[in-house]
Amino acid sequence: MAKAYENFKIEMERLELLHLGTLFAYDQAILHVSERILKNFQDPTAQIERTLAKNYKYNIVAPNAQVMEQQFKQLYPGYLREILLIRVISALEVFLVDTIREVFTVRRDLFHKNDTIQYSYGQILSFESISEIATQLINKECRALQNAGFAKVIAYYQKYLDIKFEKSGLDLKELQEYHERRHLMVHRLGRTDEKYRHDYSSTDKQLSVNKRYIIHCFETVRAFAEFVYTETKSLRRQNTLTRQRKEPTTIAYANVLPLNGRGAKVIHMNYTFAAEEEILVVKDIVFSKVPHPNGSYTLGLHGSVKQVDAYLQYLQHSENKQRLKLVDFKYVRRITPKDSLPNDFVDKIEASLPDLPWSTNIHEQIANKFRISNRQSKKAIQINKKRFVSKDLLSRVSESLDDIGFSESVHIKIAEEFKITEHQAFHAIRRVLKQKRHHIVKQASA
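and the corresponding structure tokens:
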């Protein structure tokens, strides 16, 4: 059962039992006093007292038994019903808003909007994950709905969740009247205004809540909440977020020994790193972090292949800088798209390849260096073999490009000049451009 609906049912049960229990207590109090009077244990004209706290101003329940009976049978039950109406409608409002929040967690696709939201650079950079942004967005949405009124909340359900309230068989105007009456009880002590009298064709100047009204309110609100719960439950089952094709995921474990403060920072749960164009923090992919007596930690990693591989590269870089020691790293499950490898991953392997001819065990060397399987290493080498150019040839291509410049068919000219395939020429130009861009960025940051 959804938490919002479960909380609503508990609240409604308590309110209805409060109603029943208080009326029972009134009846029992009247009966108890009447019996004491009949047995001459109590003077019918005497004050009826109940000490609530020492020196508390109000300790007289009623001036005499007759007044107490009138209060307990007529006056106080009316006040009780008014208070219960206020609480019942509040419970319904909380349920409706919390249900939207619950649906959002599994069906974000239903809430796609083209609205523009402004954030400062500081706010954007303070977010540690997409989940944090989503949380702030739905919290903002829910806060707005809390103060929007029943009609606007219903309109929101109709627009974004496509709930057909006419299917409920309930009168929405009746539910709206409950909200209006609650509002008048809270803010005007039940005195009606012109708008209420016009909207509900009423001549009443003062509203009250009789027994029939509150019982019908209980029944209607419970039926309405059950309808909303049933309709949104079917939406949760149609969770398109889990049905959409997602990037393959992998599970891995890394045993890391920080050697200094900078090394410890890399495994901190709020450490920021990049996986291509995606900005992540460690806690986005680390599902467990177990400390060991020697100061090392075992990190359980779970995420896309791109995310886990990117973090592995950060660990390896820190190891090269002697900030930490990567004691062990192993994939428990590594899933990659069939017959494909990330381009940046293949490029990094290419940059580490020596000039031709390659040794017969080159795939094993690459597999050990990048901590990948032999099959993956062979695949990357196969791709690079078709486009590989030596470092000397790459240098000469760079010089030639400085002379002839760039044009749409420059790769054809390079292929003819150096007697290589157009595919090799195209890739060589790409590598030269990448090197030049890296050099420019390095100079700018120096």
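(Above: one complete record from the training split.) The chain has three domains: 3-240, 245-335, 391-445.
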